[in-house]
Design a protein that fits this description.
Layout lengths: L2 E4 H7 L10 H16 L3 E4 L10 E5 L2 E4 L7 H10 L8 E3 L3 H9 L3 E3 L1 H25 L5 H11 L3
Parallel strand pairs: 1-2, 1-5, 2-4, 5-6
Antiparallel strand pairs: 3-4
Helix pairs in contact: 1-5, 2-5
């Protein structure tokens, strides 16, 4: 299921990212990216304000996009526009704690998820992704020639 995330709303609900931090957007993008990598589903984050890069739409991968509203519009306006573009809006999950936006999403058949609830899903996905990465490192660990020599000295070279 595709996710459309109200970025500033999610940052505002998260206990360890503050909206006034200069890198708050980057922190959220990093968290959501781990979620995206674990779920392999389409994710669009919509932030209020203007983009730092000057791009109003930044496609990180074909299924992971960062969007900013055009001047004079809000992130909520942009989310509504994106939602209207889906032929099967009942397959979309909108992440926000904004009551008006949640009501709009539900009216057109989309599912909604509260930002704080989703934040803890993100943290869980990051933890699981980290565990998987650690396991892969252990599975693919190799010894250097020097380490092999040291182990042979300890256990004998027979």
């Amino acid at each position: 299921m595709p996710y459309i995330i109200d970025g500033n709303n999610l940052i505002g609900c998260s206990p360890d990212i503050a909206l006034n931090e200069p890198d708050s957007r980057e922190k959220l993008i990093a968290l959501v990216r781990k979620f995206y990598e674990s779920k392999q589903t389409k994710v669009t984050i919509v932030f209020d304000g203007s983009p730092q890069s000057g791009l109003f739409r930044n496609t990180i991968t074909p299924k992971f996009t960062i969007v900013y509203p055009t001047p004079g519009h809000s992130a909520d306006d942009e989310i509504k526009k994106i939602l209207k573009g889906y032929h099967h809006s009942n397959e979309v999950i909108v992440v926000t704690s904004d009551r008006e936006l949640k009501n709009f999403a539900r009216e057109i058949g989309a599912k909604t998820k509260n930002s704080i609830e989703f934040y803890y899903e993100l943290k869980k996905a990051c933890y699981q992704q980290g565990k998987q990465e650690e396991t892969q490192k252990r599975i693919h660990a190799s010894l250097s020639a020097n380490e092999v020599d040291n182990w042979l000295k300890i256990f004998g070279n027979e």
